[in-house]
Design goal:
Elements: H1 3-7, E1 11-18, H2 23-41, E2 46-54, E3 57-65, H3 72-83, E4 98-104, H4 108-120, E5 135-142, H5 151-168, E6 175-188, E7 191-204, H6 210-226, E8 235-238, H7 248-251, E9 254-255, H8 260-263, H9 284-301, E10 307-314, E11 323-327, H10 336-346, H11 351-358, H12 389-394
Parallel strand pairs: 3-4, 7-8
Antiparallel strand pairs: 1-6, 2-3, 2-9, 5-10, 6-7, 10-11
Length: about 400
C-alpha cells in the first residue's frame, strides 16, 4: 500500500487465512516440528526441511546437519494426529498414511558460506555468523490493531482459528480439519471502518445440511470473532461450492512454504518471497524477517510512524546486510532518514545478533506454523515485543505522541 492509500476515500482490502488442517499448513507444521526436535537435541542444527503431502502420504525431504536423531515416522504421525486427521473415513489419517523421507546433509558450500565470517575472525564474535543465503526480507507494522498488524489478516486468522476451535471443542461435531477464511475490510482515508465480507470454507462430514452448516458458521465462528465491525451491509459466503467433504491431502496436494502471505501480513506489505517453516535461523528468510518485524513494530509503538515497512537484504556468507530501507508511507512523525539512523544506532541485523536477541536456537517454531508468525497475542514470541519503543521514543525530538 502506497502513500496514496492513505488519501483514498474508500477502498476494500482482503486477506485470507487457513486452518491447521489445510494441506499446505500441515506441511509447514511437519517441517517446523522436525526443526524443533532437531534444535531440542542439538541447538546448532542446520535444518532446511521441506514437506509435501497428497492422498495417503507425507514426504519429508531436505538438508539437515545435526548431532540429533528424529524418528520421522513417529513425529509426522504425531503432527497429523494433533491436527485432527484421526479417522480413515475422512480420506487421510495419522495411523494409515505413508511417511517417506529423503534427507541429506547441508551442502558444504552453503555451510562454508554461513561459517566463513566466523572462521575468518577465529570465532571472536559469534554475531559474525554469515547469512545463510542471499535475498531481501520485509518487516511491517501498522497501528490498526493492538498487535500492530493489518486488520484484514488479523480478522482472517481469528476466523480460521475459531473454526478449528469450534471443531476441536465439539460444538460442531461434523466439521473436519481443513478450512479457509477470507475477510474484506472497508477502509476510508486509510483507516479501517467496517467488515464488508467474510468468506469461510469449512470441510464437513457428508450428509450435513447446508442450512445447518451456514447457520453454525455464521453464529459460532464469524459473529463471535468479527462482531464489532460487522453491520447490516456485511455479507457472508459459506462454502461457495455448497459442499466441502473432500479436503486435506485427499482433496489437494500440500507443500511447505506455499502460504507465505498467510504467514505474514495478508498482502498489506511486500514479501521477499522466502518461506519460514522448516528453516533454522541461520537462514535469513526466517531470522531477518523476524528481525525486520521487530524493528517495524517498535518504530510504530514508539510513535515514530503509524505505518512502517522495513526492507533488509543479504549476501550469502556475509554477516552485515547489504542494504536497509525504511518506508513510512507519509505517516512518519520524523523523517524516514531519521528513523533509519535510529535503527542503525539501536538494532543489529547480523544473523548471529538476531539469533542471540530472540533465542532462536531453541525449539519454538511449530507453534508459529499456523495462524501467522506475527501479531500472536496467544504466544510469547520474542520478535513481537516492543521493549525498544521507549528507547526509540526518547532518542528523537520530544513531543511525539505514544502509539497505543
Amino acid at each position: 500500500m502506497s502513500t496514496s492509500f492513505m488519501a483514498t476515500e474508500q477502498l476494500l482490502f482482503t486477506s485470507e487465512s487457513v486452518t491447521e488442517g489445510h494441506p499446505d499448513k500441515l506441511c509447514d507444521q511437519v517441517s517446523d516440528a522436525v526443526l524443533d526436535e532437531m534444535l531440542r537435541q542439538d541447538p546448532s542444527s542446520r535444518v532446511a526441511c521441506e514437506t509435501a503431502t497428497t492422498t495417503g502420504v507425507v514426504f519429508v525431504l531436505g538438508e539437515i546437519t545435526t548431532k540429533g536423531y528424529v524418528d520421522l515416522q513417529k513425529l509426522v504421525r504425531e503432527v497429523v494426529r494433533d491436527i485432527g486427521y484421526t479417522d480413515a473415513a475422512t480420506g487421510f489419517d495419522y495411523q494409515t498414511c505413508g511417511v517417506i523421507a529423503a534427507i541429506k546433509e547441508q551442502s558444504g558450500e552453503i555451510a562454508q558460506g554461513v561459517d566463513h565470517a566466523l572462521e575468518a575472525r577465529q570465532g571472536q564474535d559469534p554475531d559474525e555468523l554469515g547469512a545463510g543465503d542471499q535475498g531481501m526480507m520485509f518487516g511491517f507494522a501498522v497501528d490498526e490493531t493492538p498487535e500492530l498488524m493489518p486488520l484484514p489478516i488479523t480478522l482472517a486468522h481469528r476466523v480460521a482459528k475459531k473454526l478449528a476451535d469450534v471443531r476441536k471443542r465439539g460444538e460442531a461435531t461434523y466439521l473436519r480439519p481443513d478450512g479457509k477464511s477470507q475477510v474484506t475490510v472497508e477502509y476510508r482515508f486509510g483507516r479501517p471502518v467496517r467488515v464488508d465480507k467474510v468468506v469461510v470454507a469449512a470441510q464437513h462430514d457428508p450428509g450435513v445440511s447446508y442450512a445447518r452448516l451456514r447457520d453454525d458458521i455464521i453464529e459460532r465462528v464469524i459473529r463471535p470473532t468479527v462482531a464489532d465491525l460487522i453491520d447490516d451491509r456485511t455479507t457472508y459466503v459459506v462454502n461457495g461450492t455448497g459442499a466441502f467433504t473432500i479436503g486435506g491431502p485427499m482433496g489437494d496436494a500440500g507443500l511447505t512454504g506455499r502460504k507465505i502471505i498467510v504467514d505474514t501480513y495478508g498482502g498489506s506489505a511486500r514479501h521477499g518471497g522466502g518461506a519460514f517453516s522448516g528453516k533454522d535461523a541461520t537462514k535469513v528468510d526466517r531470522s531477518a524477517s523476524y528481525g525486520a518485524r521487530y524493528v517495524a513494530k517498535n518504530v510504530v509503538a514508539a510513535g515514530l510512524a503509524t505505518r512502517c515497512e522495513i526492507q533488509v537484504a543479504y549476501v550469502i556468507g556475509v554477516a552485515r546486510p547489504v542494504s536497509l530501507n525504511v518506508e513510512t508511507f507519509g505517516t512518519g512523525t520524523v523523517s524516514d532518514e531519521r528513523i533509519k539512523a535510529l535503527i542503525g544506532e539501536h538494532f543489529d541485523f547480523r544473523p548471529g545478533a538476531i539469533i542471540e536477541r530472540f533465542g532462536l536456537r531453541r525449539p519454538m517454531f511449530r507453534q508459529t506454523a499456523a495462524y501467522g508468525h506475527f501479531g500472536r497475542p496467544d504466544l510469547d514470541l520474542p520478535w513481537e515485543r516492543t521493549d525498544m519503543a521507549e528507547k526509540l521514543r526518547g532518542a528523537h525530538a520530544p513531543g511525539v505522541a505514544t502509539a497505543r
